Amino acid sequence: MTELLTSAQMRANEHAAIASGEVTGLELMERAGRGVVDAIFEHWWTYRQRPHRAVILCGPGNNGGDGYVVARLLRDLNWDVTVFALGDPERLPPDALTNYNRWVETGRVAPLTLANYDAYSDAHGPADLYIDALFGTGITRPVTGDAWEVLGRLVGMGQGMGVGPVVAVDAPSGLCMDSGRLLGAEGAYAWGLNQFAALTVTFDCPKVGHYLADGPGLCGRLAVVDIGIQKWRGQYVVGKAAQSVWLAEMTPDDLGARAVTLPVKQAWHAHHGQTHKYSHGHAMVVTGGEGHTGAARLAARGALRIGAGLVTLAVPGPAMPEVAAQITAVMMREISDARALDTVLEDERLNALCIGPGLGFGPARADLVRAVLQAKRPTVLDADALTLLAEHEELRDLLHDGCILTPHGGEFARLFPDIAAKLTAPRLPKPSDSQSADLAAHNAYRSALAAQTGPAYSKVDAVREAAKRAGCTVLLKGADTVIARPEGAAVVHAAVYDRAAPWLATAGSGDVLAGIMTGLLAMGQTSVQAAAGAVWMHTECARAFGPGLIAEDLPEQIPTVVKALVK
Ligand SMILES: NC(=O)C1=CN([C@@H]2O[C@H](COP(=O)(O)OP(=O)(O)OC[C@H]3O[C@@H](n4cnc5c(N)ncnc54)[C@H](O)[C@@H]3O)[C@@H](O)[C@H]2O)[C@@H](O)CC1
Ligand SMILES: [K+]
């Protein structure tokens, strides 16, 4: 799996590399700048054919330093390059200053002001390429003033004829690379979340913020450039597992994805190498009442298709005919109440449980959740079970290490309202109209904005906090799904960039996900393996099917995806 780094981890890697004496900061900056140019040429072959006109925005730190390297390399290829610099270039850090000095030997730099930028644009019209090298991992507070306004001018670039795209160096400026949240809430830039960079070129490893929240929308596409510092990765080992964030991913030739796909592979091979159906586990999915069994049936199908040896639906008596009419390989047991469920769960061979899809509400359903939790098996709690957990504190007290909670945003907010509030709160609320109209109030807002420092609270922070409180694995769904353990290990699964599958948002899709996860638990995977493997498989199935997908199609794609995986 690919590790996703935070800004602090990236800085630590860079320091370790430079401290080793094997490489200098200046060399790293040169590699970074060259990597950006190479990535641009790889994405737009026309730029390789003849020189074009570029506008480069350079910031006050090393991200700006990368920008000066790019400026020089493009100019060496006879490009017409205009650089706007934020702040006093003489105060740049040493490596960036060296590259600034090299650039000004022959190039020019204009101060980055809105007036200068607009005057240039009026005189020359749109450029062929815009490079945002204002801020990278060193961003500590919202971008304000003219720099923010000029970033707003870049929104939508690349979308008209003859208007060049934006390439972001390391990240779109203002993006918090730990949370994927744009620091700063108002203005054209903040509203152009899906129309900013066409390409973002980052270094060594992708960062967490490239995959969460606003990150993918702002970044456009993501290219990762190797600057030769892999061997210093992970020098920040104190409490490493608890700080690490991994990307759940997989391409056929992507060995990095093994940790996620291996559970699926191992389980699959084990499935074929052994003969007894009980050795592949026995999953039980609890259904809702009459007319509400579809969701649990979908989950059961997912569990069976992924490879659980046996899958049984626990069904209330009156719903038995309805279920019987619609299942074949899945079995069913009558469970009229919690006592009956207790009795059935005395069978230790039932080694993974799923409750919630279509379950319904009320005391009798809460009792079923209690029975499931008291059985202390690896358990997926989804949908209505999550709402019941939110309503009943005594049920939450029964959560154990083998549980996986799989909330979507709304369910998460019901379960962990205070944590959800931190996640959704703007770092500063938008000013009211009257505040905006009042200059003094507006300026006060501006200074409060500028005074905010540090990375924004992220979805990873939130899910880690929730997992710690719940004492079990928590998976918060979304285009950016985050899975976290109580001790802090986290996996991000992002159905973004090349893996976007918006048609996965269809009724019953979550039920299948819960079922695949339960199947993997039955097959002996740990909760993180099962959660990460299931969410990856779920998206792959959607991608394999394509648009037009309905939830029933998902389990039926599993064999195709697994076949490709184990080939
Ligand atoms: N870490 C690494 O291994 C490498 C980093 N490189 C580049 O260096 C960048 C990081 O450089 P820095 O740490 O200098 O950080 P940045 O260049 O991202 O920005 C830091 C500067 O901006 C100021 N600043 C932060 N927020 C601001 C705001 N809202 N308004 C105005 N000023 C603000 C800081 O006070 C500081 O002067 C990376 O993003 C990358 O582009 C590359 O050169 C190569 C290697
Ligand atoms: K940038």
TrEMBL record:
Q: Where does K(+) bind?
A: 63, 132, 173
Note the superkingdom of the native organism: Bacteria
Do you know which Pfam families this protein is assigned to?
Answer: Carb_kinase, YjeF_N
Q: Which EC numbers characterise this protein's activity in its record?
A: 4.2.1.136, 5.1.99.6
What are the YjeF C-terminal domain coordinates in residue numbering? 261-565
Q: Which reaction does it catalyse?
A: (6R)-NADHX = (6S)-NADHX; (6S)-NADHX + ADP = AMP + phosphate + NADH + H(+); (6R)-NADPHX = (6S)-NADPHX; (6S)-NADPHX + ADP = AMP + phosphate + NADPH + H(+)
Cofactor(s) needed: Mg(2+); K(+)
This entry's comment on the bound cofactor is: Binds 1 potassium ion per subunit.
Q: Which residues cross the membrane?
A: none
BP term (GO), one: nicotinamide nucleotide metabolic process
Residues engaged in binding AMP: 477-481, 510
Keyword field:
ATP-binding, Isomerase, Lyase, Metal-binding, Multifunctional enzyme, NAD, NADP, Nucleotide-binding, Potassium
- Which GO MF terms does the UniProt record name? ADP-dependent NAD(P)H-hydrate dehydratase activity; ATP binding; metal ion binding; NAD(P)HX epimerase activity
Matching InterPro entries: Carbohydrate_kinase_pred_CS (IPR017953), CARKD (IPR000631), Nnr (IPR030677), Ribokinase-like (IPR029056), YjeF_N_dom (IPR004443), YjeF_N_dom_sf (IPR036652)
The record places domain YjeF N-terminal at: 10-235
The entry marks the following residues as binding (6S)-NADPHX, namely: 62-66, 136-142, 170, 295, 358, 408, 511
Q: Which PROSITE patterns match?
A: YJEF_C_2, YJEF_C_3, YJEF_N
Subunit composition and interactions? Homotetramer.
Q: What does this protein do?
A: Catalyzes the epimerization of the S- and R-forms of NAD(P)HX, a damaged form of NAD(P)H that is a result of enzymatic or heat-dependent hydration. This is a prerequisite for the S-specific NAD(P)H-hydrate dehydratase to allow the repair of both epimers of NAD(P)HX.
- Family of this protein: Belongs to the NnrD/CARKD family. In the C-terminal section; belongs to the NnrD/CARKD family.
Q: What is this protein called?
A: Bifunctional NAD(P)H-hydrate repair enzyme
Please name the gene that encodes this protein: nnr
